[in-house]
Amino acid sequence: MRIDKLLSNMGVGSRKEVKALMKKKKVFINGVAVKSPNTQVNPEKDQVICDGKVIKYQKYGYWMLHKPSGYLSATYDHHQRTVIDLLDEKIQIFEPFPVGRLDKDTEGLLLLTNDGQLAHKLLSPKNHIEKTYIAKVDQTLTSTDVEQLEQGVDIGEGVLTQPATVKVMSDEEPTVIQLTITEGKFHQVKRMFHAVDKKVTYLKRMSMGGLVLDELLTRGAYRELTQKEIEWLQEL
């Protein structure tokens, strides 16, 4: 890898800015000052120091985002805001993308990464990753509704959902439902409630397997995953 690309990818600055640092003799590989921006470096073996700081190369990044309503789960859109617009430029350098999608009007846990292989594992139906949502619906669920949702419902086009776990959150708020599913079909949660003649008025994803939405994250805020969370992902 070129040294200017490595430093640029790690947020040191643009390639032009990196070149300027080299002219000032502030970039070193294994103790030797770097003069040329196209000097090759092995990120896993070589020690890189820039402006007195050791630069540790990070190929993949993993971030937990508390997605707010009003943003698309996409990397780019000509007309609407996407979740990538919420990220600092230093994070955008990694070119992260959302793993799966939440509807524009849905809030909650969204994983962002540039690790395509891991994203594929998370989204693979074979892994049966549990996803838990809090939904507000326009009417109280009957016991028959709950039974149907838990056994599986027809959400259209002959698609029958896998068994789900349904919990009414409290007697005081009988229209607030916790729903856990192991699939990720298009508009699935809304279509499931529609199948029992209920309309979702609010939806928030709380967890995805071993990833639980950090209660300290406000809407639109994000953080890097902890080592424990990353280890869970890598064990898939």
UniProtKB/TrEMBL annotation:
It comes from Gracilibacillus halophilus YIM-C55.5. Keywords: Isomerase, RNA-binding. Belongs to the pseudouridine synthase RsuA family. Its EC number is 5.4.99.-. GO terms for biological process: enzyme-directed rRNA pseudouridine synthesis. PANTHER family: PSEUDOURIDINE SYNTHASE, PSEUDOURIDINE SYNTHASE FAMILY PROTEIN-RELATED. Residues 1-61 form the RNA-binding S4 domain. PROSITE patterns: PSI_RSU (PS01149), S4 (PS50889). This is Pseudouridine synthase.
